[in-house]
Design a protein that fits this description.
Number of helices: 3
CATH superfamily: HupH hydrogenase expression protein, C-terminal domain
Radius of gyration: 20 Å
Order of helices and strands: HEHEEEEH
Strand order of the largest sheet: 1-5-4-3-2
Shape: flat
Number of domains: 1
Number of strands: 5
Length: 129
């Protein structure tokens, strides 16, 4: 038997990163509450296992607001149980995750309509009547 013939099973265990991220989010949320300072944590830039991501999702819980945006790809935005902490996932056309972010803000930027789009809609609506 060669080494290549030996089956290898990787165990996806939590590494403790979820707790570290929770501590960081707690600091960011306090700054949002005290000073209005927003922040973003890019989960894909962190050395987190799938088990860590699942543990973090469980720790953050589920809030009352959920939104889906269909544009070039799909974006999923959901409030966590902690008001002001949002889980934002952007997918490509192939449903592959392009980015996974935790935004600490009142409302994620992707949900705010830009003024040029509002002006365009106002002009279009004016022609309806």
């Amino acid at each position: 038997m060669n080494l290549i013939d030996i089956p290898v099973k990787t165990l996806d265990k939590p590494t403790g990163m979820a707790n570290a991220v929770m501590n960081e989010l707690s600091d960011h949320l306090k700054r949002l509450a005290d000073d209005g300072e927003t922040n973003i944590v890019d989960l894909m830039s962190l050395p987190m296992t799938e088990a860590d991501i699942n543990e973090l999702a469980d720790m953050l819980g589920v809030g009352e607001v959920k939104a889906t945006i269909s544009s070039i790809g799909t974006s999923s935005i959901r409030e966590t149980a902690y008001r002001g902490i949002w889980w934002v996932t952007h997918y490509g056309d192939d449903e592959q995750v392009l980015s996974e972010l935790i935004e600490i803000t009142q409302v994620p930027d992707i949900l705010i309509t830009h003024m040029d789009e509002i002006r365009h809609s106002a002009q279009a609506m004016a022609t309806v009547n």
